Amino acid sequence: MKKLYRNMRLFTAVDNGRALAGAEQGKISELKNASMLVSNGVVERVGAEDEVTKGICGRDISFEKDFGGACVIPGFVDPHTHICFAKRREDEFGMRLAGLPYLEILARGGGILSSVNAVKETDEEELFRRSERTVLAALSKGTTTIEIKSGYGLDTEAELKMLRVIERISKETPLTVAPTFMGAHAVPPEYKSDPDKFVDEILIKEMLPKVKAQGIARFCDVFCEEGVFSVEQSRRLLKAAAAMGFKLKIHADEVNDLGGAGLAAELHTTSAEHLLAASEEHLKAMGEAGTIAVLLPATAYSLKKPYANGRNIVDWNVPVAIATDCNPGSCFCESMPFVFGLAVMKMNMTVDEALTASTLNAAYAIGLADKVGSLQPGKQADFLVLDGETPVALAYHAGSTSVMEVYKLGEKVA
Ligand SMILES: N=CN[C@@H](CCC(=O)O)C(=O)O
Ligand SMILES: [Zn+2]
């Protein structure tokens, strides 16, 4: 049986087989009085009502809804989160407000390492319950597909525990989930004097094969940053991961311009994230390599750092996606509408560019563009009804999500 959604003002990026870059990123299709025919949760037809219903017998339609001309966009795809965590770190936020730098907190054994201790102390059921709560908060704000990283385990057992919880989130919530293995999130204190040993003997020889064997991660990611993993260590890990069939991501040039964006271009990683301090040369190389820049403006907000230069990065022909980076430390934010507003107001992207960044390009950044990211035949019927005439509302109505209704696979879920 089919569902028919009618009378929508529908805005979507158009998928032509690759992430959109440069001027293409700002091209959005707008259809007034649009209808959408959904079959088994998948868009069968979308367009003018007479075309959409041509040859369809009324008896085949089990459900029909008129949206009264409301603005509809694809469900948000959040392509970068650490949303599987055991405890919030409000105390650390207070320390940062008092002037202590983020990397200094980590160097003193706090930050990511305090989240590692919390995950180890929390049993799997409880970790699932707490993570699920934050994931459902994201869903209520319009996120219908989400990437979730491990990386608060740092030993094989705890990393696998996180990845099992992430798999459960995928099975037991309405969201589509892209799981990422990020055992290279920080150097555990016991390897502080020999981080190469952690990279070569633990990450490469022990963890990657076990994660691969269990088939519970699609991507491998690394935090390439001063005092965390060097460019050379990141290169070794990512090359080993690629050889085992993982797709690649890299946290690059978040605080210091270490050359992570250049490494992303060299290895043709699917995406490079953060990029606040990345050089023009390396960003342009990413554009040539087709590596997607995943920008995280809520992290710049939360760390009180200058925003990544989204305007230039789009103009340099790098496909841009945006994400929340939801995590308990550097950025406790599960709201894609907030990130959308920051992209427009603080990174000088246009509303249309931000819409592509938060839907289609985000889907490409997690390898799921064949299923989600735009409202076109063959893709999941994941969509949002907005309070506003156009997607401008997402930036205009500051502090509101503007998301009235959330549909996943053609079903209202929030
Ligand atoms: N920068 C590294 N990792 C995360 C933060 C994780 C944390 O602070 O817990 C990020 O992408 O911002
Ligand atoms: Zn991150």
UniProtKB/TrEMBL annotation:
MF-aspect GO terms: imidazolonepropionase activity; iron ion binding; zinc ion binding
GO process terms (BP): L-histidine catabolic process to glutamate and formamide; L-histidine catabolic process to glutamate and formate
Top enzyme category: hydrolase
Occurrences of domain Amidohydrolase-related (ranges): 72-407
Gene3D superfamilies assigned to the protein according to its UniProt record, in alphabetical order: Metal-dependent hydrolases (3.20.20.140), Urease, subunit C, domain 1 (2.30.40.10)
Binding, Fe(3+): 80, 82, 251, 325
Superkingdom of the source species: Bacteria
Keyword hit for Cytoplasm: yes
Catalysed reactions listed for this entry: 4-imidazolone-5-propanoate + H2O = N-formimidoyl-L-glutamate
InterPro entries: Amidohydro-rel, HutI, Metal-dep_hydrolase_composite, Metal_Hydrolase
Cofactor note: Binds 1 zinc or iron ion per subunit.
Main location: cytoplasm
Cofactor(s) listed in the protein's UniProt record: Zn(2+); Fe(3+)
EC number: 3.5.2.7
Annotated positions binding 4-imidazolone-5-propanoate: 89, 152, 185, 254, 330
Binding annotation for Zn(2+): 80, 82, 251, 325
PANTHER family assigned: IMIDAZOLONEPROPIONASE (PTHR42752), IMIDAZOLONEPROPIONASE-RELATED (PTHR42752:SF1)
Described purpose of this protein according to its UniProt entry: Catalyzes the hydrolytic cleavage of the carbon-nitrogen bond in imidazolone-5-propanoate to yield N-formimidoyl-L-glutamate. It is the third step in the universal histidine degradation pathway.
Annotated family: Belongs to the metallo-dependent hydrolases superfamily. HutI family.
Protein name: Imidazolonepropionase
Organism: Synergistes jonesii
Record lineage: Bacteria, Thermotogati, Synergistota, Synergistia, Synergistales
Gene name linked to the record: hutI
